[in-house]
Amino acid sequence: VEVDDSSLTQAISTLRKFLKDSTKSPMFVKTVPKRGYQLICSVERTTPLMSGEVHEEEKLELESSETQEQSKVEEVVETSIAPKPADSAEETISTQAATKSSNTLVTKLLIFLAALIPLCVILLTTPAESEFRQLGMFDNTLVKTPINHPDLTQWYPSIEQCVKKYNETHLERLAPVEVIATG
Predict the structure, then answer these.
(1) 47-68 pLDDT, tens per residue?
(2) Full domain range(s) for residue 109
(3) Number of structural domains, the chain?
(4) Spatial separation of the C-alpha atoms in residues 11 and 165, rounded to whole Å
């Protein structure tokens, strides 16, 4: 059976990640330069074969490959791989789901607060009311200006003309109660 290099590399990488095996000081799979990969730990079968029988040819092949592997390995690290129970995998998945769920909840809570804070500021604070000074009465309309504005006395004739013209052109509507001139 032929396997392309990238598939093999990816499979070994996945195996190392699952076993938490580093490439610099491996405990399970060692990279042999220009040759491939080498298993450097002992392996024990934990489940019987499906048929319950091992064919003689398979036994011979298995034994010959084991002896070849043993001769290639100069230093064998004696490590047994204990199978993980299914419960721990389920716990990992449920822990990841709970973490993801709590992250989603925290994100939603932060978005809600980010929207709520400006809304509270707008609704619960009252803007400072501007203070006005009275400029005069033109055509029965009170004219005011903000206190912090410069003097508008030179504009009185223009303001008076504007108020009168507005009242003349809008006879059918109500006259303004007050006018605020800002210069």
Answers:
(1) 766 655 555 555 555 555 554 4
(2) 85-125
(3) 3
(4) 88
